[in-house]
Known about the structure:
By secondary structure, the chain is α/β, with parallel strands linked by helices. The chain folds into three domains: about 15-285, Alpha-Beta Barrel (TIM Barrel); about 330-395; about 405-524, 2-Layer Sandwich (Double Stranded RNA Binding Domain), CATH 3.30.160. The chain has helices spanning about 35-50, 60-75, 90-100, 115-120, 125-140, 160-170, 185-200, 220-230, 250-260, 260-265, 275-285, 310-315, 345-355, 360-375, 380-395, 395-400, 445-455, 500-520; strands at about 15, 15-20, 50-55, 80-85, 105-110, 145-150, 175-180, 210-215, 235, 265-270, 405-415, 420-430, 430-440, 460-470, 475-485, 490-500. An eight-stranded parallel β-barrel has the order 2-3-4-5-6-7-8-9, surrounded by eight helices. Helix 7 (about 185-200) links the parallel strand 7 (about 175-180) and strand 8 (about 210-215). The longest helix has 20 residues, at about 500-520. The structure holds 3-methyl-2-oxobutanoic acid and zinc ion. Zinc ion binds next to loops.
Amino acid sequence: MASIITNASDSCRNIVIFDTTLRDGEQSPGASMNLQEKLEVAKALVELGVDVIEAGFPIASPGDFEAVREIAKIVKGSSVCGLARCVPADIDRAWEALREAEDPRIHVFLATSAIHREFKLRMTEDEIVARAVEGVKRAKGYCSNVEFSPEDACRTEIDFLCRVVEATIAAGATTVNIPDTVGYTTPPEMTERIKTLLNRVPNIDKAVISVHCHNDLGMAVANSLSAVAAGAGQIECAINGLGERAGNCALEEVVMALRTRRDVFKADTRVVSQRLAPTSRLVSKVTGLKVPRNKAIVGQNAFAHESGVHQDGVLKERTTYEIMSAESVGFAKNDLVLGKHSGRAALAARIKSLGYELEREQLDAAFEAFKRLADLKKDVFDADIIAIVDRQLSPNASSDAAGDWEVVSYSLGCASGSESTFEVVLSQGGVEKKATGTQENGPVAAMFAAVQQIVGLPLALSDFKIEAVSGGSDAQGEVVVFLNDDASKSTVRGQATSTDVFEATLRALVSAVNRVQASRVGEK
Length: 524
Ligand code: KIV
Ligand code: ZN
């Protein structure tokens, strides 16, 4: 059970980690996840040891409601939170979704800054205070664990912010969150704001002070750390820094900053740091949003040493150029490359060291896939193994769920200066359909035309990415396709990996098509 802590300072305070990957993170353009993927992420967050999982905004859509309810049912050991505006219908809906949780939290919010009061809400200060208090009281009628957020708090006049915070704590809020909604504040300003709240709000000791920093100026992590240094007791953050616009404070960065610099912050979290890289990979996989190679903590290059001087130093003494070890954040220790002569035990050991637990049948299937891949390419790298394991762990996330379209075969013809043709056979429920696309714009355009003829849906491509999973000309290509779905007004993603990039593209496209179809019948 997540423990509520006080803001009181002792030698090493525990900071509550409130993860909002599934709520604010899912608001990143293109990052929508289906129910199965959200459940997978929620389980990973529990293993990671986050204290609070903000699972969604239940009134926003039936899909959000369902996701919060299902997550609330399965999560043990972390609090599950649902977001609500200070509106009775929102709060009632949030509680309906959360009621089966072991440790439910309702998070109510209302904007407080002058700009929001005047232009968005058209409400006076008195009306804002009254609405915020009503919201907290209504939530409190359902559960004891209530968080209030004065949206755009960092641009709110400090006197008014103190008044709102005092009133909402008096109404029963156990956490008061100070969002930098537009990512505008700076570290010294954040320190000042938190200190002022702690000094001026008379009942501040009755609640945990939290921060929720957006990254518009690239200062979300620094602002969150400044808040902690000033006395805040909770940080809201998201895996890989996902979130609206430029995102939220990156969980992996803020957690490792606190752990690595406990001497400075005198604070730590209960996060299991070895789960950071696997959780980052999972979130990247289910959202299709790639982690930049040079990203702190979880980027592929975060522990790579290129220059000879650095390599020499690290070989002599790792700490010459490393302030954390790769293993401490969950990267595999042994980077020996596997190949076609490697056995099942070696593969199993590598999968384990990469942070995965597979059932026997999943391991058998992964070994089969590994052998097939090792026949096609000389060296099988960790990134290849991760791609194989990801396919075993969530086949529906990539393609081929029952009832969906499946790829049977394809052939293509192309040459410079002439039209490309792409012939494809897809099957649905065992019934095969064949079509040929012909396009001047190359084989991928011809592929889209052929698939469109079969599935009968308009395929509006919004983004298309191919990336080599590892080095070498025989590397697997990972393809992510994003389609604009006019009906749901959303971006739908498909993803697949193969040594043949045309096959990967076709499978990724078909996976996206399956998601578009499923969202129309409300399945995913
Ligand atoms: O950025 C923000 O202000 C939010 C609130 C709902 C906490 O996401
Ligand atoms: Zn936010």
